[in-house]
Specification:
The complex is a heterodimer of chains A (202) and B (609).
Chain A lengths: L7 E8 L4 H14 L3 E7 L8 E9 L15 E4 L2 H11 L5 E5 L6 H4 L8 H11 L2 E5 L1 H7 L6 H11 L7 H11 L2 H17 L2
Parallel strand pairs in A: 1-4, 4-5, 5-6
Antiparallel strand pairs in A: 1-3, 2-3
Helix pairs in contact in A: 1-7, 2-4, 5-6, 6-8, 7-8
Chain B lengths: L3 E8 H11 L4 E4 L7 H6 L6 E4 L3 H13 L4 E6 H17 L5 E6 L13 H8 L4 E2 L4 H18 L3 E3 L3 H4 L1 E8 L14 H4 L5 E2 L5 E2 H21 L5 E3 L5 E6 L2 H12 L5 E4 L1 E2 L3 H8 L4 E5 L5 H13 L4 E3 L13 H11 L28 H15 L2 E3 L25 H10 L6 E6 H18 L3 E7 L28 H7 L3 E5 L4 H11 L4 E7 L3 H6 L22 H4 L6 E4 L2 E4 L10 H4 L7
Parallel strand pairs in B: 2-3, 2-4, 4-5, 5-7, 6-7, 12-13, 12-15, 15-16, 17-18, 18-19, 19-21, 20-21
Antiparallel strand pairs in B: 1-8, 6-14, 9-10, 11-13, 22-23
Helix pairs in contact in B: 1-6, 3-4, 4-5, 10-13, 11-12, 14-18, 15-16
The chains are: A alpha/beta (202), B alpha/beta (609).
Chain lengths: 202, 609
Amino acid sequence: MAIQEDPMNLVISGVGGQGNILLSRLIGRSLVKKGYFVSIGETFGAAQRGGAVMSNVRVSEHMPLGPLIPEGKAHIILGLEPLETLRVLVKYGNPKVVTITNSQPLFPVDVLSRKAQYPDYEALKQTIRGLSQSAWFIDATAMGLGLGAPIVANVIMLGALIGIDLLPLTKGDIEAEIKASFPPDRAELNLKAFNMGTDSVG
Amino acid sequence: MVLKVETDYLMGNEAMGRGAVEAGVRVVAGYPGTPASEILTYLSQYPDVYVEWSANEKVALEMALGASLCRVRAMAVMKHNGLNVVTDFLMHLNFTGVRGGLVLVAADDPGGLSSQNEEDSRIIIQRHAHLPLFDPWHPREAKEMVKAAFELSEQTELCFVLRPVMRVCHARSAIGLEALPQTERQPAFEDDRSRFVMSGVREPKFGGMLRPVLRHRWLNDKQPEIARIMEESPFNHIEEGEGKSGLVACGIAYAYVKEAERLLGHKLPVLKLGTLPPPRSKVLEFARLMDKLVVYEEVEPVVERWLKELLYEAGLRVEVVGRSGFLPSEGELSTEVVLDSIGRLYPKLRVPKPEAPPLQVPVRTRTQCVGCGYRGLLHALKLTVRKSHGVVTGDIGCYDAGAFAPLELQSTIYCMGSSIPMAQGMAHSGLGRPVFAIIGDSTFFHNGLLGLLNAIHSGVNLVAIVCDNRTTAMTGFQPHPGSDTDIRGEPAQAIDIAKMAEAMGAKVQVVNPYDIPQVLQALDRAVKGGVSVVVSRAPCYLLASRAGETLFTPRRVRVDPELCNNCKICVDYFGCPAIHFKDDKVYIDEVTCVQCGMCLEVCKRGAIK
């Protein structure tokens, strides 16, 4: 599978505890198996504790790359939370960027303690649309609740990412990686979530 | 010939761990700290390697040298703050040298993405201790450097150091794996007291010279050998390009320089450096063709100053600029910083900075996890401090988020273990207000114990709160001396903080942080005089949930809008992310809530049910 632009730059953004790093690892491992040069930069340390977490995923057919995507050079932004999509979009976006956002907001502690304001949701959505070439909004948390496990919202979002078909990966590639990464019962739930995600953009 | 057995997809830290196993390492010790923690976690899968999380970094390096003196290969791993703790030992180790290959990994966090400060470990290692150092740009190179470091350490009898930065430690890519060595080395120890007994005694064989001076001379005499090794090192190279301003790319900066070249579609002259000291003749060969050198390095102008010295001695008049003003003197480098500087060197290559939309995105400060027992403890402490007009000194660990909004509880946070001595100082100042120190269990073992001992001995009035959650939660759940299992999950002797404090003569109370009334009572008693230790004991909620352990009876809660008078105590003095506040109404977000029920105790009107 040829990639449309080389290198292809994907940013996954979210909040500590949402499973951001898991996604970049599933994607990275699948791409490495297909023979691509993959470089991933992870910004964590605040993981699990409600801080902003970002992974940079870079794919090339030709060369090893540094772990960080330069500003304004993302092709895809996968946001596990709307404000986190916007945070990354402002820095790494460009008129051709495609965004996929989990529409469920998670309020920062600063908002809860009234030191900052969470933007009006409709306005936030409009801003994201205005800054993206195409913008998908997926209610992944609600879909995860439907499965009895809001925690799988991240894998639903991964499904949506694979569904829009911009990365050189098939559904089967990720399904194989999910099966290899989870014990059987968890794998089943995650495969269900993954397929819900791919269907949501189908 | 090296046999490549397979390729794995590894994080930079894991790649360094793998490099050490391929080099036949036998003893590895470290203390957790972002960005270096996963090196030891990765190594714990190899049964032939002794791996431990030591009480602190100094203990780790001392242990590693002990093993090295028995002629096996050893490694010590830490972040830059740990290197500061290690410095005293390091300033002796450099004089004695090593026997089995000894590698020290000191990881830096330029930009302080996950640290209390930012600093450049190369200064302590190279300028202060005069030890050779590698600075990798990529996980693959980091792995090769670890292997080379073991070989060269044995060849030179010096400790070799790797200084990876966050962006190398936390990068992932495909890494080639080579076969592990099959030959087992027999440990052996032979005495050499003139070397391994560091003391100010005279050496008759050397005309009565004092031993510290003799060992210092030994280290200085090693420098030409080190210079020759770095001269031939594969980790430095020259890339030809168009222009008279040469880019000197050190460590991770090479990634940003290459990225900038790719974006500009233009090849510039580049000197890629991965060693300290830098290779003298390569530097001169490169500099001779240039009018100016720009040194990109994380984070202090170390190589920049080195090159200035070197060119001055060689009589070359080439301008050298970098972190001393031409580039920003603080914070992390990036492709953007490199692009901006190239635009100033070569006006034709100036690219307009992409315009960011003028939007303010609220910051997202980290906090305790929903369900974390520390939230109950911090809430009780907040109430006690307000009532008693107290001051709280803080320390390093998850509970530090109590210093941020909404609680804004701790008034100071410095480095590992400083909470109790600072509280003691406040008490001795004559301030006349109750002082509280709050410190975690791993931090307490690391460097807090001596502070407590000191405070007890001084007979001061203070309350030391030790947050015992059985793990080093902040850095990813590493065990510590208070844990009952080791890095591999095998049973280990757990050291009881409460008993230890009692033995030292403190008044000790043990509380369950989920039981807010119990914590409040304990704190109230503790303020009454002498050194009082309150141990808050409950496992880390995340770790417990993973293990299927229950810490509380799940209680589904909701806010009764009739009883809620919007006093916001639950938001401002408790700050649970599951308690939302919108349109002047408090409500519980059911997706986020884990039903710990602590908030039932927080609401004084009984509006949370």
